[in-house]
Amino acid sequence: MKSDTIHSVQALRGLAVFLVVMFHFREDLSKTYGEVADLLFINGSIGVDLFFMISGFIAYYVYVNENSGLSSSKIFLVKRLCRIIPPYFLVTLMVAGNSC
Q1: pLDDT value at position 1?
Q2: pTM of the complete model
Q3: Per the database record, which ranges form the Acyltransferase domain (predicted)?
Q4: What is the distance between the alpha carbons of residues 59 and 22, in angstroms, rounded to a whole number?
């Protein structure tokens, strides 16, 4: 069975998640761990840039490795939107529900 997963890209995704989460919690961490946490994660927002780079790479990778041209790009886009939109609306509803 052939796997199209590129493990180094998955590791970069994990690093990007870690950086973004720690960036958001750096103030809370600095209360416990002092300035060390703030210094370590002050540039954690770079994880967002890393996500954009990974997304561009994956889009190119799928485009190059699929031989069906534009139709494969459409399939990729539909699959991606089906993965992104439901969690987006779920989290949006949860946050909106808690803001009242």
Answers
A1: 40
A2: 0.60
A3: 7-96
A4: 27
